[in-house]
């Protein structure tokens, strides 16, 4: 098990429990009561820790190395999935995966960021930071969905679009802007879910949807807490304060009207109950798709545009 900084009390209890179980395996001393006591303490400590998480702690959970990524959710949610590759302009971006899937009889086009499950795969996936060809691939798949009247599901989990010079040379900003323009008027339902990190244009490039949900321990913001801290304080040491100031949690986003729903995670984070989390996410995605399909598509598009037009409005002082 991988423990985060704020989970140290749990790590200590798990270490004690492991040692007690080793003694119990010898059969010389009855340790059953001690084991039960430690398990009870672990349960209570877990409840105390996860019952009052700060913004920065949720950011840490969203980056947990054992957290499930897009391909895991796709595998769990779809009976069959055919991945499609390439943008037909430059190449195939491994940081964004997508294709056609069967979700309990409902054909959908699924697009998502993919970070990679180990060091080698993270490098292969560019740590989930997409290049322009990734966003153009995503748009190509959305156009396929529109042609065949398939709803679109987008799974968001990225620290941001790739900031390298080669990405800028190939039109990073234009690719993201084009996606926003096309998604605003796409004639099929779009359901988006933030499953991990939702940073800046890298997230919004596939994040404009009719129904947007966030998993409980995820974040959505124009900038990461570390980058915000380095700009304001010229140091990463104030990342916790930055996380609070940015108001980037799912609860904050729901309050601002930027998202429509929060999907509860298992206690301890999505990684502590991966199959349970996938089942819960699938249920909410299907529910959202069904509600949108019950409406006329012109009404869906009108509501989509109205929704994003309302975001950011403020009242002027009289």
Automatic annotation (TrEMBL):
Protein name per UniProt: Acetyl-coenzyme A carboxylase carboxyl transferase subunit alpha
Domain of life: Bacteria
Location in the cell: Cytoplasm
GO CC, alphabetical: acetyl-CoA carboxylase complex
Subunit structure: Acetyl-CoA carboxylase is a heterohexamer composed of biotin carboxyl carrier protein (AccB), biotin carboxylase (AccC) and two subunits each of ACCase subunit alpha (AccA) and ACCase subunit beta (AccD).
Role: Component of the acetyl coenzyme A carboxylase (ACC) complex. First, biotin carboxylase catalyzes the carboxylation of biotin on its carrier protein (BCCP) and then the CO(2) group is transferred by the carboxyltransferase to acetyl-CoA to form malonyl-CoA.
Molecular function terms, GO-annotated: acetyl-CoA carboxylase activity; ATP binding; carboxyl- or carbamoyltransferase activity
One Pfam short name: ACCA
UniProt keyword terms in alphabetical order: ATP-binding, Cytoplasm, Fatty acid biosynthesis, Fatty acid metabolism, Ligase, Lipid biosynthesis, Lipid metabolism, Nucleotide-binding, Transferase
An individual GO BP term: fatty acid biosynthetic process
Domain CoA carboxyltransferase C-terminal per the UniProt entry, residue ranges: 37-291
Biological pathway: Lipid metabolism; malonyl-CoA biosynthesis; malonyl-CoA from acetyl-CoA: step 1/1
Species per Swiss-Prot/TrEMBL record: Neolewinella aurantiaca
